[in-house]
Amino acid sequence: MDQTREAVLAAHGLSRSFQGVRAVDNMSLSLHPGELLGLIGPNGAGKTTMFNMLAGALPPSSGRIELAGHDVTREGAEKRLGRGLGRSFQIPRPFPEMTVLENVLCGAQRQSGESVWGAAFRLGAARRDEARALEKARQIIEFLLLGHLVDQPARVLSGGQRKLLELARLLMADPKVLLLDEPAAGVNPSLLEEIMGRIVALNAQGVSILLIEHNMDMVARLCSRVVVMAQGAELAQGAPDAVIREPQVIRAYLGDAA
């Protein structure tokens, strides 16, 4: 079976250089329908550069990216979001003075009232869209365990709650693929369990997820497969428990201490 052809997100031979330094070197990766895939590696391995190319924030120097069979290599993040790919950031930046609900509503897509034509000639449709968006936002907020904060300004949220808020805003666009950038970073252990539970629930609903994470316990618990990067290229891939015991992976993380 050619798994790459069936992938919902696939990178083929991606490379990216900065001032002559190759941060990613001929890297290929496939995310399959319903998969929860981990992308791991030591600091400086090229994970963030790879992630940004997949998300559309950074064009590759060479190679190709496909999303649901479409070549999206030269498309930006907004176009990819419209095709069903959403990404989170390691440090979320919500609108601090807007409420949780207002922040989530910012993620609504294709509203009738967004255009001059829609606002002027489709007032009824715009109002129906707004009502549907409001109901959807409230449901997502409840799903992500933020219901008790729905009317609070985003500035009062903890770091973990801000990560959930960012995820809520992404879910307003009905993504089929999510790229999650270190959702465990800076999160207290009790809230981390809730975040992990929501990630598992989303995956169970059919959302394919690519996860960059340094918390290896979280990776081992969530991911059925991991890809390890080192020096811009793939070092290993497979089941988490097996991969993290491979000698070359241990050396990549620990260096001479291995």
From TrEMBL:
The keyword ATP-binding applies. The keyword Transferase does not apply. InterPro entries: AAA+_ATPase, ABC_AA/LPS_Transport, ABC_transporter-like_ATP-bd, ABC_transporter-like_CS, BCA_ABC_TP_C, P-loop_NTPase. Residues 9-256 form the ABC transporter domain. Keywords: ATP-binding, Nucleotide-binding, Transport. It holds the Pfam family BCA_ABC_TP_C. GO terms for molecular function: ATP binding. This is ABC transporter ATP-binding protein.
